[in-house]
Design goal:
The chain is an alpha/beta fold. It has a single domain (3-143), classed as CBS-domain. Helices cover 47% and strands 19% of the residues. The chain has helices at residues 3-10, 23-33, 52-62, 88-98, 118-143; strands spanning 16-17, 37-42, 45-51, 82-83, 102-106, 112-117. It has a three-stranded mixed β-sheet. The longest helix is centred in the last third of the chain and has 26 residues, at 118-143.
C-alpha cells in the first residue's frame, strides 16, 4: 500500500506554525488540535517540525520560560520526508530507523501535501492484517 492511500482515508490537512511563533503558541495549537507534532513553515517552505519531544527538551533545558522562545529555537530542522508513492513498509522502516513518529508527505512538485503519524501507519497495517485474515477465512470456508 502506498502513502497516498493513507492520505485518501485520513485527509490532507496540514497544521503549521511560523518559525517566529512562540513555543507557547505551538503548545496551545497542539492541545487544541489534539496532535503530537506541527509543521513549521516559512511561507510555503518547510522549515522544520516541532514535536512533543522537542517541547520536552525545551522545557528540560530552560524550564517554563522556554515557552516564550520562538519555535525556530527548538524545532527539528532536518526533517525526514516521504512521498505519496512510497510504501507503508518503507515508511515504517524509516520511522523505526530514525526514531520519529511524524513524517511530512511531499507531492510530485515537492510541496507538503500531508502528514503521516505512526498511529496512521499502525491503523493501516492492522486493517490490512484483518482484511487478509478475513480473506483467508473466506477462502478456507469456500474450499472445504
Amino acid at each position: 500500500m502506498q502513502i497516498r492511500h493513507i492520505l485518501q482515508q485520513k485527509g490532507r490537512d496540514i497544521v503549521a506554525v511560523s518559525p517566529t511563533a512562540t513555543l507557547d503558541d505551538a503548545v496551545k495549537l497542539l492541545a487544541k488540535k489534539r496532535i503530537g507534532a506541527v509543521l513549521v513553515k516559512d511561507g510555503a517552505v518547510l522549515a522544520g517540525i516541532l514535536s512533543e519531544r522537542d517541547l520536552v527538551r525545551a522545557i528540560a533545558a530552560e524550564g517554563p520560560s522556554a515557552l516564550g522562545r520562538e519555535v525556530r529555537a527548538y524545532m527539528t530542522k532536518s526533517v525526514a520526508t516521504c512521498t505519496e508513492t512510497d510504501t507503508v513498509e518503507d515508511l515504517m522502516e524509516m520511522m523505526t530507523r530514525g526514531r520519529f513518529r511524524h513524517v511530512p508527505v511531499l507531492d510530485e512538485k515537492q510541496s507538503v501535501c500531508g502528514l503521516i503519524s505512526i498511529g496512521d501507519v499502525v491503523k493501516t497495517r492492522i486493517a490490512e492484517t484483518v482484511n487478509e485474515a478475513n480473506s483467508l477465512r473466506e477462502y478456507i470456508s469456500t474450499t472445504a
